[in-house]
TrEMBL record:
Annotated ranges, domain Thioredoxin: 14-175
Coiled coil: none
InterPro entries: Thioredoxin-like_fold, Thioredoxin-like_sf, Thioredoxin_domain
Naturally occurring in which organism (per UniProt): Helicobacter brantae
Protein name as it appears in the record: Thioredoxin domain-containing protein
Length: 195
């Protein structure tokens, strides 16, 4: 019986807590600051998965064309060896890093995390953004013109040399449609014996 009483007393102390003062405006605002920090942390948790590319990318919380450039969405996910391989290829190539940073408004979207994106003035969560472009496997690269219209899609891993050619060509031909880009890229790859 004594054990039961001692246990109840300790449990009561635990729930009452050590602080005897009443909540103040300051302590309440600390709580809301914590929730703001938690929301911000949740919105940015995906960045750790592509931290090495951050210098070449825009913040994916607000996706838009900047300076009338084409938009490049790189869809990836955790535990995706080809996504890691793509990141590695980008880091090894000055041309790819320059293209991501200077020729496109570039964004990495990790489908393993859920967050809210302001996508050309529309709020979309990560899952809806992936569904919009029918992302079934990663990596997938989506190219948009400055108006936000899709002009080309690359599904799967693409080696450095082919990707350098694709980024350069697409950045200079944002007015073409998907079929025209595919045909011209095919011809460029054939000329360089990359097929």
């Amino acid at each position: 019986m004594r054990f039961k009483e001692a246990f109840l007393f300790l449990a009561l102390l635990f729930f009452v807590g050590c602080e005897s003062e009443k909540p103040t405006l300051q302590s309440i605002s600390k709580g809301s600051a914590s929730s703001k920090e938690a929301k911000e942390m949740h919105q940015n948790i995906d960045k750790n998965s592509y931290s090495e590319l951050l210098p070449y990318l825009q913040d994916n919380s607000m996706i838009e064309s900047r300076d009338n450039k084409g938009v490049l969405l790189i869809f990836g996910s955790n535990q995706c060896k080809y996504c890691d391989k793509l990141k590695s290829e980008i880091l090894k190539s000055k041309a790819l890093k320059n293209a991501l940073k200077n020729d496109f408004s570039s964004y990495y979207i990790n489908l393993s995390y859920q967050k809210t994106h302001l996508f050309f003035q529309n709020k979309l969560d990560t899952q809806m953004l992936g569904e919009t472009y029918q992302i079934r496997s990663t990596p997938t690269l989506i190219f948009l013109n400055p108006k936000g219209e899709m002009i080309f899609k690359i599904v799967g891993f693409m080696g450095r040399e082919k990707l350098e050619i694709a980024l350069e060509f697409i950045s200079e031909n944002l007015n073409l449609d998907e079929e025209q880009i595919a045909e011209k890229l095919y011809n460029l790859y054939a000329q360089k014996s990359l097929l």
